[in-house]
Design a protein that fits this description.
The protein has 16 helices and eight strands. By secondary structure, the chain is mainly alpha-helical. It has four domains: 55 residues, no CATH class; 113 residues, Tyrosine recombinase, N-terminal domain (DNA polymerase, domain 1); 147 residues, Orthogonal Bundle (hpI Integrase, Chain A), CATH 1.10.443; 53 residues, no CATH class. The strands form three sheets. The chain has a three-stranded antiparallel beta sheet with strand order 1-2-3. The chain has a three-stranded antiparallel beta sheet with strand order 4-5-8, with no helix packed on it. Strands 6-7 form a two-stranded antiparallel ribbon. The protein is elongated.
């Protein structure tokens, strides 16, 4: 008798469809059988049985399961990797899965996922995956690649745990990251006049000191929200960046902030403050003291920026509020993070040395700064050429150059 005849059989059920039954018992264990139904032909059922027998003989057989991708991600994978990831990385994983993956594939059985399903997901995200102020637009190739990386890691763990026979993400292809679709393609900045207009429009509003601090320092959103008063030295005009607020969880006693350490050694840094920002922070502290006295509460973790009752500001909600506030001004819509890009662009354009800009931003290397803000470099290069030529050729060159520039056309 053949192995197939000895361990499995094909039969037709009452509906006219074909099925197979196979013995999946392990040596020394109780007898167990697996059954698969719904084949249109006997030949298809026999082929599936033969494949299953081959997996059993190769000890690569995976028991059928109705476990969905959402159940696997939420109940099994994320709780395990949570202890292995930085809080900011974990938050990023959770956010991308919640917004982009689980709404589309969460109900799909884990074992039914295939490369085609993932390929379709990537195409959909690249076409219309945005969920922010550009809703309906596509995600950047960098973001889709990042989502692919998350899924590949999650599904590889499923293989390691014997929940999947092979990782479907290995054969799925995310969009290529071209020069036109690199990591910096979504940088949007305001001009000096636009930034000034926004600050003037919000000057009398509660969160003006926060907008001003981010606009004049280039701090990341989480760095500003994670700042506490112990890290602020207004007499010396500087702040110390030591952590970042990445999330605010709801607990029985209220809101609990989730912090993360800086990604790099240079992420921990001291940032100088201009006089106007120092003055705004002094006024802000007085206002906070009054608000907290009114509520009878102190700020959580002595945070600089909080709600009126002392609870920490939620990073994602703050980002959405910023976009809403920008829309009311009629200015071009940018993200909250683009205040950082705006500061860096204006600093470079005004002649601040890239090394200084890199250190204030907390980049690990100056190369990262120059790569991100490469759009500023051509103008800087032209200005450098003119300055050096003026030094070499003397004042006469500058006068002649000005005359040529101003000549009527």
């Amino acid at each position: 008798m053949t192995a197939a005849g000895r361990r499995g059989s094909v039969r037709q059920d009452s509906s006219g469809r074909w099925c197979f039954v196979v013995d999946v018992s392990v040596p020394g264990g109780p007898r167990r059988q697996a059954r698969r139904r719904g084949f249109h032909t006997k030949k298809a059922a026999q082929a599936a049985l033969t494949e299953t027998l081959g997996d059993l003989n190769a000890r690569s057989y995976i028991e059928p399961s109705r476990l969905t991708l959402r159940e696997y991600i939420a109940d099994r994978w994320l709780p395990v990797v949570a202890g292995e990831l930085r809080p900011s990385t974990l938050h990023s994983y959770q956010r991308n899965l919640r917004l982009h993956v689980l709404p589309r594939l969460g109900a799909v059985p884990l074992q039914a996922l295939d490369p085609a399903s993932l390929q379709a997901l990537y195409a959909n995200l690249a076409r219309s995956g945005r969920r922010d102020h550009l809703a309906g637009h596509g995600l950047s190739p960098r973001t889709v690649n990042y989502i692919h990386t998350i899924l590949r890691s999650a599904l590889q763990t499923a293989v390691d745990w014997d929940l999947l026979q092979r990782n479907p993400a290995v054969r799925a292809r995310p969009p290529k990251r071209t020069a036109a679709g690199n990591r910096h393609e979504q940088i949007r900045t305001w001009s000096r006049q636009e930034l000034s207009s926004f600050l003037e429009a919000t000057r009398q509003e509660r969160l003006y000191p926060l907008w001003l601090l981010m606009a004049t320092t280039g701090l990341r959103r989480g760095e500003a929200l994670g700042l506490n008063w112990d890290s602020v030295d207004l007499s010396a005009g500087r702040i110390s960046i030591r952590r970042s607020l990445v999330d605010v969880t709801t607990v029985a006693s209220g809101s609990e902030p989730v912090y993360s350490d800086p990604k790099t050694l240079r992420g921990s840094r001291i940032v100088g403050l201009d006089t106007a920002t120092q003055r705004a922070l002094r006024g802000w502290r007085t206002r906070l003291d009054e608000e907290h006295a009114l509520f009878g509460l102190a700020a959580t973790d002595n945070l600089v920026f909080t709600n009126e009752d002392g609870r920490p500001l939620h990073p994602d909600r703050l980002a959405r509020f910023f976009v809403h506030r920008v829309r009311k001004t009629g200015l071009p819509v940018i993200r909250l993070h683009d205040l950082r890009h705006t500061w860096a662009t204006l600093a470079l354009e005004s002649g601040v040395h890239p090394k200084v800009v890199s250190e204030r931003l907390g980049h690990s290397t100056i190369t990262i700064t120059l790569t991100i803000y490469s759009h500023v470099l051509p103008a800087m290069d032209t200005e450098a050429a003119e300055r050096v030529a003026g030094l070499v050729l003397g004042p006469e060159y500058m006068v002649c150059d000005q005359a040529v520039t101003n000549r009527p056309r």
